Amino acid sequence: MISGEIKVMREESHMWPASANVFLVRDRDGAILIDVGCGKEEKFNTLKNFLNNEGLSLRDVHTIVISHAHPDHMGAMGFLLQEISPRIYLHDFEIPLAADPQLLNQTFDYNLAKRRGSSESNPSLENINVLDYFAGLCPMSSSHATNAMTDGDTLCMGKFRFHVIHTPGHAPGHVSLFDPDSGVLFTGDVVGKVVAWYSPSSGGAIGYLNGLERLAKLNARIILPSHGENIVMAREAIERTKAHILQLESLILQTLGDRPLSFMDLCGKLYPKPTVQLFPGPQLLESHLIKLEQEGKVIRQEDGLIRKR
Ligand SMILES: [Zn+2]
Ligand SMILES: [Zn+2]
To answer: Does the pLDDT of residue 227 top 70, yes or no?
Structure first.
């Protein structure tokens, strides 16, 4: 159905640090890309070859839509902008992050373990800079935006009219795109083969689950995720993602049991691996504690310990 209309430059692996899938939609004026992949020169060359195989060159790309400002989705912008000046669409909340990727350190909540009193003394990890960490794996670059996207906008691309759906949790201004006529749904990182990490500053569990609720109501016929193969069982994939997130929440409550625990003790019980206790363990846990506190299911005592209500 969509094979002739939307082309994809797919990564063989869907596991980090894989570059995100790059989607190509053609229209009368040339080509539109959804995401551009990470900032490795060989990836950029693969992108150029991909376009050439479609009878296009980089100069035909007049518009780029970025699902969110993470390195695997927009790192290649640095290379692209040396050669072309396309229209660039980013959600309002992602525009400052794309312009100054150092701000990603805040949205990843990297220092959460430290803030929550981690006894693990590992300065090299605690003072980690997201961009340094990504540099060798999947380099990031900055980009300006020419057009701000917001929830409810419509993007016309060839025969498609994509509705912009704000789906935060994994990134503050992460967007999904849905075309009601064809039933095509781009989910970026929020629905795919694996469930993406989420953090409080990126929208947390509340944002993620709200976004999934909205996606579930769309009656999508096919999901085009940023990592992995297309998914024809769209509704099931959305429900599976939701179930996975709620399962972690049950596990948190179960692990808390009847006695109060410190944040890092709780984190350690959920995630025995030391590196996960720095990322994304604390980020996932804090995201759920915020939700559970709001729902009156847990309480943070004055001594900092967390208990069930
Ligand atoms: Zn991402
Ligand atoms: Zn990604």
So the answer is: yes
